[in-house]
Amino acid sequence: MHIRRSTEEGSVLAITLILAALIGLMLAAYLTLIGSQNRFTQRSQVWNNAIPLCESGVEEALAHINYIGTTSNFAINGWVLANTNFVKARTNSDMICEMNISGDLQPVITVKGSVRAPVQTNYVTRTVRVKTKFNRRFPQAVLAKGSILIGGSGIIDSFSSTNSLYNTGGQYDPAKRHDDATIATDAKAAGAINLGSATVYGRGATGPGGTIVVGGSGVLGSAAWDDSGAHKGNAQPGYTTDDLNLYIPENKLPPPFPAGFSPWQNQTLLGVTIGGVTLPSTTFAYVIGDGDWVVDAINLSSKDIFLVNGKARLYVRTTTTLSAQAAIKVVNVASLELYAGGNIDLGGGGVANGPGYAVNFAVYGLKTCTAVSYSGNAQFIGTINAPQAAVSLTGTADAIGAIVGASFSLSGGMGLHYDEALRGDPKEGRYLVASWQEM
Predict the structure, then answer these.
(1) Tens digits of per-residue pLDDT, 64-95?
(2) Which of 91, 138, 191, 277 has the greatest number of C-beta atoms within 10 Å?
(3) What digits encode the pLDDT tens for the residues 272-328?
(4) What is the C-alpha to C-alpha distance for residues 324 and 344, in angstroms, rounded to an integer?
(5) In this structure, are residues 305 and 263 in contact, taking their beta carbons and an 8 Å threshold?
(6) Residue range 50-59: average pLDDT?
(7) Burial readout 316-329 (b: 16 or more C-beta within 10 A, e: otherwise)
(8) Which of 392, 335, 405 is nearest to 364 (CA)?
(9) Euclidean distance between CA atoms 332 and 348, whole angstroms
(10) How far apart are CA 125 and CA 114, in angstroms?
(11) CA 95 to the chain's CA centroid
(12) With bands split at pLDDT 50, 70 and 90, how would you rate the model's confidence at 170?
């Protein structure tokens, strides 16, 4: 009996030891699983935290390139030039943010965010790349790739259709002119800007090495400088620069113009109001309203009128020509964006911009538009953005708006009054985000 009892006790002990070992293994496996899950969770959190770190770096880089105290040299406020890029790094406990701004005309921002891995000495790193674009509408009164030639003795100044300090009823008033018109070109040649006898209330800028010529009766500078009468033939010190370096992109036709409507032709309408005057029953050569419109060419003469009585976009595949008394007329509540696939010659009656604001008439010269000229009888109120075109304005009625072209000339005593409301929103900065990509 004693032997049997000892055997039983030994069996119970063996079973107990086996069960204890199994429980221990299960507990160890469970603890390992919990530990792994904890590490994975922490690593996931670290991985996710790297993106906000990158975003903070992008925000700082954007704020830096949009800082009013910088131009094209960003090597200030802790940023240093390394080869062709501007770099800065910030460290905070277990985080490192490395920022890089390229020296391109439209800077590319690259940010690497590194967060220390849990219970380790290495880092989890993620990188994002942000391409920027210019916050551009019309930041200058005139911007050209090449030469700027001002003939006659016209006045170039600025006003603001949205700031009552610099307008009367939203319109230009010479008694409230502002001295914030900039005449700028990327050209680097001597005499890149020739102001002749013009009076420019504002600034002038050329590419590196370019110069500005002021004629004997001309003057450029602040209102106080220009109006003193003692500075004829001179530019005010500090009001000219030769470090302009801007990229002027080509215009592209926005969709969905291939499916645009054809303008109505030879339409008779009753009671159309233009410039506050209600016309009797009138036959118009073309009529367009709200929407997108396409026409092969515009060639108007005699007393032909192209009527715009809605918010319209018009694609002209080839040339646009006005002669004799022909005119484009935009009624009081309408607007026109004209996309030109060929050259533009707006003579005759020109463009009657009924609303009276530059934003209501815009010309966009496409790549195949190489010349834009305006010599119409009506005051030109609008904008011209034709980077491939020689842009010329001539006449005795002044222009209101802004110009972008391959080159620019102003003659016939014509002046130019720049509407500061045409600028991009300064609160958004000079550069905006064009694309965001994780590397």
Answers:
(1) 988 867 765 788 899 999 998 999 999 988 89
(2) 138
(3) 666 566 666 678 899 999 989 999 999 999 889 999 999 999 999 999 999 999 999
(4) 15
(5) no
(6) 92
(7) bbbbbbbbeebbbb
(8) 405
(9) 21
(10) 4
(11) 35
(12) very high
pLDDT of residue 343: 98
Q: How many other C-beta atoms can be found within 10 angstroms of the C-beta atom of residue 36?
A: 10
**Spatial separation of the C-alpha atoms in residues 210 and 76, rounded to whole Å:** 26
Q: Give CA–CA dist 88/77, Å, rounded.
A: 10
**Cα–Cα distance list, 167 to 172, 229, 354, 380, 423 (Å):** 5, 25, 18, 18, 16
Tell me how far apart the alpha carbons of residues 271 and 419 are, in angstroms, rounded to a whole number.
31
Looking at 72-76, 198-202, 266-270, 418-422, which range is the least confident one?
A: 266-270
Instruction: Give the tens place of pLDDT for each residue, 208-219.
Output: 999 999 999 999
Tell me, what's the pLDDT at 17? 80
- Kindly state the tokens that stand for 370: 């190489």
Could you tell me which of 4, 9, 149, 130 has the C-alpha nearest to residue 63? 130
Distance CA 294, CA 257 (A): 7
The residue among 26 and 33 whose pLDDT is bigger is 26
Report residue 129 as tokens.
Answer: 């790349």
> In three state form, how does the secondary structure of the chain look?
CHHHHHHHHHHHHHHHHHHHHHHHHHHHHHHHHHHHHHHHHHHHHHHHHHHHHHHHHHHHHHHHHCCCCCCCCCCCCCCEEECCEEEEEEEECCEEEEEEECCCCCCEEEEEEEEECCCCCCEEEEEEEEEEEECCCCCCCEEECCCEEECCCCEEEEECCCCHHHCECCECCHHHCECCEEEEECCCCCCCEECCCCEEEEEEECCCCCCEECCCCCEEECHHHHHCCCCCCEECCCCEECCCCCCCCCCCCCCCHHHCECCEEEEEECCCEECCEECCCEEEEEEECCEEEEECCEEECCCCEEEECCEEEEEECCCEEECCCCEEEECCCCEEEEEECCCEEECCCEEEECCCCHHHEEEEECCCCCEEEECCCCCEEEEEEEEEEEEEEECCCCEEEEEEEEEEEEECCCCEEEEHHHCCCHHHCCEEEEEEEEC
Which amino acid type is present at position 108? V
